[in-house]
Amino acid sequence: MTPEEKTLDLAQRYKGETAENLSKLVKIKSFSTKEEAVQQELKRQMEPLNLDELKMDGLGNVIGRLGHGKKILAIDAHMDTVEAGNPDNWEFDPFSGKIEDGYVLGRGTVDQKGGAASIVTAARILKELGLNKDVTVYFVGSVMEEDCDGLCWKYIIEEDRIKPDLVICTEPTNGKISRGHRGRMEMEVIFRGISAHGSAPERGKNAIYMASKACLDIKALNDRLKSDPFLGKGSVTITDFVSKGPSLCAVADYAKIHVDRRLTLGETKESALTEIKEIVKEVDAEVQILQYEEKAYTGLRYGMEKYYPTWVLPEEHAAVKKAIKVYESLFRNTPSVDKWTFSTNAVTITGLYGIPTIGFGPGDEALAHAPNEKIPIEDLVKASAFYALYASQL
Questions:
Q1: Residue 12: cis peptide before it, omega within 30 degrees of 0
Q2: In this structure, are residues 323 and 336 in contact, taking their beta carbons and an 8 Å threshold?
Q3: How far apart are CA 192 and CA 252, in angstroms?
Q4: Computed over its alpha carbons, how large is the radius of gyration of the chain?
Q5: Residues 73-115 pLDDT 10s
Q6: Measuring CA to CA, which residue among 377, 299, 373 is closest to residue 91?
Q7: Domains of the chain: residue spans and CATH
Q8: Whether the predicted pLDDT of 132 surpasses 90
Q9: Catalytic: 145?
Q10: Of 4, 145, 171, 267, which residue is the catalytic one?
Q11: Sorting pLDDT into bands at 50, 70 and 90, what band is 188?
Q12: 32: which of 107, 150, 153, 231 lies 20 to 30 Å off by Cα?
């Protein structure tokens, strides 16, 4: 058998265990900052593999290591999920982890515990087939991505002192290879008015009116943002609006809006900030980029600015070419090379630190954060084989 055939054969042989591992992970609720139980389960699944190192770091990431070589590959899956939302929208229990009709069902199967289960199987395959002595592979189950993309990798790079040469991100790609996505940033605009009695509003300055006008101007801004041939158009929208005053019989003297900004190539933190400042320049308003400062489940408070840079690898990049070659040799057809619509941990890995990232993950991106999330078991098989072969041929 060829290395490709051996890798696929093992991925198929272990698909039952891969599905069962995923089912166990799905049954454990693991919202951001509350991942401890699922991290313990992931670590338990890795323990029988007898990796060269297996640990939980100070932020709560699970990190397994195989090999001692100079070429360093990391394969990443974040373990936190969003909540299930309205239960009436689900046709099954979102935390059942049920296995039926060739699927694993539940919240996080696609986004993205399916990637984690596939990583465990890939590590098992590599243990059986062997790894080039010049290579080190890290298998990472990371935390807090849904709250703050890339924070986990900021910690891994800066505090754990692990800096790979290349990262495979296992966010769902629906069978495609991803080489980039838009960046994003979260801004807050605070408007300060002057209160007055509601019977004489002309005596005050209504912060709600200031904010409302700004919201309409931001809506108009969205229509004229630039576009990129590969990543598409930048976007901006308001995702929250709060206001208050001395009473419900008084002019509001305070309002706040939350701005979600998606950045295409050519747009920067500074340009996006300037656009909003220009909109509110004639009123008493403060524009700021938010900071993330929540505690991890370990008790550690480790924050970062909520600016997540745009990143793209050129299609001719060696990591992309390697991904295409691995895919073709395993599956005997040519993959589509595309982008993610949403954001991933690569905003830090590639966007801030310049470490190349390629994406290949089981599941359909359209089911991320959606009701009735489920993943084909065959996607787990393909992902397990892809990760193992990529690492073995690095």
A1: no
A2: no
A3: 9
A4: 23
A5: 999 999 999 999 999 999 999 999 999 999 999 999 999 999 9
A6: 373
A7: 3-181+310-392 (3.40.630.10), 183-292 (3.30.70.360)
A8: no
A9: yes
A10: 145
A11: very high
A12: 231
* 100 belongs to the catalytic site: no
User: In residues, how long is the chain?
Assistant: 394
Q: Give CA 263 to chain center in angstroms.
A: 16
Residue 221 burial (C-beta neighbours within 10 Å; 0-12, 13-18, 19+): buried
Q: With 0-12 CB in 10 A as exposed, 13-18 as middle and 19+ as buried, what is 129?
A: middle
Separation between Cα atoms, residue 3 and residue 329, nearest integer Å: 10
Instruction: Enumerate helices (H) and strands (E) in the chain, giving the number of each.
Output: 10, 22
Provide φ and ψ at 322, rounded to 5°: -65, -40
Q: Encoding tokens for residue 105?
A: 């069902």
pLDDT at 190 over 90: yes
Catalytic residue among 4, 35, 57, 80: 80
Strands (E), 53-199: 53-56, 62-66, 71-78, 99-100, 103-105, 135-142, 166-169, 177-178, 180-181, 183-192
What backbone torsions phi and psi does residue 87 show, to the nearest 5 degrees? -65, -25
For 282, counting Cβ atoms within 10 Å of its Cβ (0-12 exposed, 13-18 middle, 19+ buried), the class is: exposed
Q: Are 293 and 223 in contact (CB under 8 A)?
A: no
CA distance 342 to 340: 5
Average pLDDT over residues 39-44: 98
Residue type, 135: V
Residue among 340, 287, 363 at smallest CA distance from 108: 363
